[in-house]
Design a protein that fits this description.
This protein is α/β, with parallel strands linked by helices. It folds into 2 domains: 263 residues, Alpha-Beta Barrel (TIM Barrel), CATH 3.20.20.70; 36 residues, no CATH class. It has 12 helices and 8 strands. Strands 1-2-3-4-5-6-7-8 form an 8-stranded parallel beta barrel, surrounded by 5 helices. The longest helix has 18 residues.
């Protein structure tokens, strides 16, 4: 599979999705101020971003509303407090985790300002994910699916999952590097696989990358050059652990004149720098490199950094012993 497009051209099929609130919410338990969220919404509109993900549709029977900010739950009223009727070209998305979402909390599209529901699933819960996809499609939403932790999945299981999803009513399928462990060469092979199923079944393919080995941006542009068209990114890589593909890097790379950088830079200087001053921690660090290199969930690295530990060699040995 050859490259799709050239560095000096742009592809009209590419869509950029800002998941700053959703992935970034994993860093501060979704306690963002309304000012932060409103300014993020305005910045995305001015920057020409295609989708903004507001957070999760998490079940209040599972998660304590007193322990999380409102973007863990994305109640319709709270989204509308920010966007009104969303009289803009920016589309609104939310994420629904298999096993952590109650579908009764997702109203019919006619009653919601949300445009897209992204279903997140592991390989072993694909049948449940398809049931959720069918539900939200019947309600009138766009639907995509994120297959998480594929770096831990064997090829036959992944092929089976992609075929099942291909035969479903889902609109798009996301390639997700959950642990930030994949290199561009591996992303290339996976993107080719996903795109082959996408072409067979008429689905677009997206990518969601993590930055444990400082490859989120490289892996994203590697995938897009082959034809992956939905691209996730966050302001200054704000996201769980090492963070994600940087929105400012991605918009600076894309040649579509509809994407404009100044509003993103203004948001970063106004709000992201303030988060850092307040002590919110994310982004590349040695412990994340080590979990990424060993293809492990970053939870142990997050704990290590929170405890202000710096004995990297001991941490590496502990991780290595658990491989």
């Amino acid at each position: 599979m050859g490259k799709k497009g050239e560095l000096l051209s742009y592809r009209p099929d590419i869509k950029v999705l800002d998941c700053t609130l959703r992935d970034g919410g994993l860093v501060n338990d979704f306690f963002f101020t309304d000012e932060f969220v409103k300014d993020l919404y305005k910045a995305n509109i001015e920057a020409g971003v295609d989708y903004m993900e507001f957070g999760y549709k998490a079940s209040k029977d599972i998660f304590d509303v007193n322990k999380f900010g409102k973007w863990k739950f994305c109640d319709e009223e709270h989204i509308r407090e920010i966007v009104g009727d969303n009289n803009s070209n920016l589309k609104i998305s939310v994420m629904a985790d298999v096993g952590r979402t109650d579908l009764k909390d997702i109203p019919d599209k006619s009653q919601s300002v949300v445009d897209m529901v992204r279903v997140a699933t592991y390989i072993n819960t694909i049948p449940t994910a398809i049931e959720m996809i069918e539900d939200v499609k019947e309600k009138g939403y766009e639907a995509t699916v994120n297959i998480m932790a594929i770096s831990k999945t064997n090829e036959s299981d992944l092929n089976s999952a992609l075929e099942q999803l291909g035969k479903s009513c889902v609109d798009g399928i996301y390639l997700v590097d959950s642990y930030g462990s994949l290199y561009p060469e591996q992303i290339r092979e996976l993107a080719q696989k996903y795109l082959s199923y996408g072409e067979l079944f008429g689905k677009y393919i997206g990518i969601h990358a993590h930055n444990n080995q400082q490859l989120a941006f490289a892996n994203t542009i590697e995938a897009l050059t082959l034809g992956v068209s939905y691209l996730d990114a966050t302001m200054s890589s704000l996201g769980r652990g090492a963070g994600n593909c940087s929105l400012e890097l991605l918009l600076g790379f894309l040649k579509n004149p509809k994407y404009r950088l100044p509003a993103v830079l203004k948001f970063i200087e106004t709000h992201i720098l303030k988060l850092k001053e307040e002590g919110v921690v994310w982004g590349y660090d040695v412990p994340y490199l080590l979990t990424g290199r060993l293809n492990q969930h970053p939870s142990s690295a997050i704990k290590f950094i929170k405890e202000n530990k710096t004995k990297y060699s001991e941490f590496y040995q502990m991780l290595f012993d658990n491989v």
